[in-house]
Amino acid sequence: MPGAGPGSSGERRRPRRVPEPSPLAVGVAGDWSAAEIATLARNSPDGFYHFNAVSGDALSAQLKGGNIYIYDESGNAGRITTADVDQSNGVIHVLNSVLVPE
Prior knowledge:
The chain has a domain of 62 residues. The chain starts with 33 loop residues before the first helix and ends in a 7-residue tail after the last strand. It contains 1 helix and 5 strands, in the order H-E-E-E-E-E. It has 102 residues and is mostly beta strands. The protein has a 5-stranded antiparallel sheet. Strand 3 and strand 4 form a beta hairpin. Helix content is 9%, strand content 33%. The radius of gyration is 21 Å and the shape is globular. The longest helix is centred in the middle third of the chain and has 9 residues. About 8% of the residues have low confidence.
């Protein structure tokens, strides 16, 4: 068959469905340094500092092995890899994974 090869079977390829971006539970009211988050987690009775994102989603911080982990409502965790990045509207802590609200 002339022109036969990968992708030339004569069938039309369906466009791939690209998933919609998920809303992320990232915005938290306040201006907390990583040291403050670590202290709050360390001093809490259960070892977790519990707080809410601006969206209302529950988040928790835990200090483990000198690292701070942030957990979402589904139990997914992200480790703070870059802390205390000052911005005009607050401070950013970069995580090594994405947290998604339920």
